[in-house]
């Protein structure tokens, strides 16, 4: 559901006017020009994130640089059936994400004192224009749910090659900075009066109780009381502040098409409009995204949220061709950024359709990041999967498609052993890989022949 944005006496963009100059000259110091700032960012952090963003080239290299390493071309000795290749030899497509995001920043000195009662951390997003926008994190919200929210926003701002409006999302991300986009990740459940003391509402609300993380109990069991609102609420923010639903955005023609689809589907009876409600286009857009991503089917809803009457991707394609066009003009068929597993997860996580309800949505994942230190099993789907390893002893089955496993460590100290049709990576522990075509270490890339 949309947050109520309070009218602003002065645009927060003025706070960041000098930051663009910082990116042009190291001698310029950012100055705060507003008494109403939400975050007064460290110019050095802004510049570092901007520099990282400008180095990206829209290839798999982007993903690995973001992960902290880029393999060299140094030759290694490998057993029969394993060969040395270059990173660019891996035939897995990866698109450019149009923001560079920070980790969780805990420097409360950067937060306006007015907001420090509620928030003690934030994540900064820097687009190409150098004007940041933010995810504010309320005291008590877990790190895993904060990272989850960051990854969803990155997904919405990742290019979709060949699409009409999503092929290059640079200006959408730029407009979010210019329009002072802020997402509030809050404790508790929706509309909890205790969550926003002193009426502090500088942005779009998202509640922790509605932010399940892949691998946690809410996600695995698809608990109805903890439905995933992350896609909906974060998309509201992108649509309002970037696309142009409630502000001067980058894709106002696209917004007009969404509004036209709302009117057409209301006449067909697929959508119930709320009289006097000025956010029907946002609720409709979020509704078809929820259906398309399997969220409603997984949780076992009899009807969708926001007045939209369909529940699954198949129903959207069959009964709402306008909605299907809306989706494919901006978003990909599968989740195109790595989503992180909950660090406490153990067992087998499936990225393909199975009897477990959660797989009705996890089947739309392309990539996965295993976090924490616990041993985990992962079963991939028929997409080209990229799986990031943790330090546990893991079993990874890539399934059909071209799949890669990424290690955040050098190859030195590890041995590659072919065994019974699979590959074992032996070092501090042992990982067993099946149906994996490529292994990426920090210093080398190998192909399993």
Strand-helix topology:
Blueprint: H1 17-22, H2 43-54, H3 60-66, E1 82-85, E2 100-101, E3 119-126, E4 133-138, H4 143-156, H5 170-178, E5 182-186, E6 204-207, H6 217-221, H7 230-243, H8 252-268, H9 280-292, H10 295-299, H11 313-319, H12 321-328, E7 339-340, E8 347-350, H13 359-362, E9 367-369, E10 376-379, E11 386-388, E12 395-397, E13 404-406, E14 415-419, E15 422-426, E16 430-434, E17 438-440, E18 445-448
Helix pairs in contact: 4-7, 5-7, 7-9, 8-9, 9-12
Unreliable segments (pLDDT under 50, ≥5 consecutive)?
Answer: 4-35
The major β-sheet equals: 7 strands, mixed
| Number of alpha- plus pi-helical segments | 13
Percent helix: 25-40%
Rg estimate, integer Å: 22 Å
Q: What count of structural domains? A: 2
Q: Work out the number of β strands.
A: 18
Widest sheet, order of strands: 1-18-17-13-11-9-7
Give the DSSP E fraction (strand runs of 2 or more residues).
15-25%
Structural class: alpha/beta
Task: Estimate the mean pLDDT confidence.
Answer: 87
Distance between the termini: 50 Å
Overall 3D form? globular
